[in-house]
TrEMBL record:
Family: Belongs to the mitochondrial carrier (TC 2.A.29) family.
Compartmental location: Mitochondrion inner membrane
Membrane topology, as annotated: Multi-pass membrane protein
Protein name per the record: Mitochondrial carrier protein
Main location: mitochondrion
Source organism per UniProt: Rubroshorea leprosula
One Pfam family recorded for the sequence: Mito_carr
GO biological process: transmembrane transport
Keywords: Membrane, Mitochondrion, Mitochondrion inner membrane, Repeat, Transmembrane, Transmembrane helix, Transport
SUPFAM superfamilies in the cross-refs: Mitochondrial carrier
This protein's GO CC annotations: mitochondrial inner membrane
Residues in Solcar repeats: 1-80, 96-184, 199-300
Length: 309
């Protein structure tokens, strides 16, 4: 059931996800993707229907363990933080505050991201491959083995530091804003609800969309830097053809700070938000489809099931 929810939501927005990554790592010397509509049309014209879904298989395979670890870690971290908070304040009825939820969400995000990071790294490279690029990776396992053999184990964690830093505001704000909005709606006098189970799917969808929008906007520059660092050392496949017919390898980065500095210096601060529009567009439909699929599958199987299970 959980697989159906995640697979449906991820696959539906896969074209926007791929375009986002292509915009993030696009060589400034050869602009092929210029905006959401033009970018999707270009992919369709040059790579066909299948090109819109490159990297989606890896993303779906990664998201199952990632989500499982994330939700489990969040619940366990929340219990631990709440216990410590109650011990410190001496109030056994105390509840998690938005800041404490932020901390629990950040812990969950870091653990889940670290556990599945190698798959995210090769997913980025598989997504960037085009029909015009030299083909080096035939799939997840081929990409993992090739990177290990040619670049070493550390290469599987390129871009891990900005990912860790970015996951704090992203996942942390997601959980904090989502849970806080639900609490606010429940406690608001006009609603008079008892618990979150009485909230409609549409209301929860709105809370999730708001949380996702806030989190991804704050953390987005770190996501751009992460993707660019993941491409370092993959010059043959990541290089692109410029207007004069020559190949131009992507800029090499020695670390996160160097990547920030060179990106801003060569392309301006706006480069830190490349791909933000398609990424924002996919937030609402992704969450919407996840909730709708969840309700439909639950009705078909006639079971009561929580996503956090």
């Amino acid at each position: 059931m959980l697989f159906a929810i995640l697979f449906s939501s991820r696959t539906a927005v896969a074209p926007l996800e791929r375009l986002k990554i292509l915009l993030q790592v696009q060589n400034p010397h050869s602009i092929r993707y210029n905006g959401t509509i033009q970018g999707l049309k270009y992919i369709w014209r040059t790579e066909g229907f299948r090109g819109l879904f490159k990297g989606n298989g890896t993303n779906c395979a990664r998201i199952i363990p990632n989500s499982a670890v994330k939700f489990f870690s969040y619940e366990e971290a929340s219990k631990g933080i709440l216990w410590l908070y109650r011990q410190q304040t001496g109030n056994q009825d105390a509840q998690l505050t938005p800041i404490l939820r932020l901390g629990a969400g950040a812990c969950a995000g870091i653990i889940a991201m670290s556990a599945t990071y190698p798959m995210d790294m090769v997913r980025g490279r598989l997504t960037v491959q085009t029909d015009q690029s030299p083909r080096r990776y035939r799939g997840i396992f081929h990409a993992l083995s090739t990177v290990l053999r040619e670049e070493g184990p550390r290469a599987l964690y390129k871009g891990w530091l900005p990912s860790v830093i970015g996951v704090v505001p992203y996942v942390g704000l997601n959980f904090a804003v989502y849970e806080s909005l639900k609490d606010w709606l429940i406690k608001s006098k006009p609603y008079g609800l008892v618990d979150s189970s009485e909230l409609s799917v549409t209301t929860k969808l709105a809370c999730g969309a708001a949380a996702g929008t806030v989190g991804q906007t704050v953390a987005y520059p770190l996501d751009v830097i992460r993707r660019r660092m993941q491409m370092v050392g993959w010059k043959d496949a990541a290089s692109v053809v410029t207007g004069d017919g020559k190949t131009k390898a992507p800029i090499d980065y020695t670390g996160m700070v160097d990547a920030f500095r060179k990106t801003v210096r060569h392309e301006g601060i706006g480069a830190l938000y490349k791909g933000l529009i398609p990424n924002s567009v996919k937030v609402v439909p992704s969450i919407a489809i996840a909730f709708v699929t969840y309700e439909l599958v639950k009705d078909i199987l006639q079971v009561e099931f929580r996503i956090s299970d």
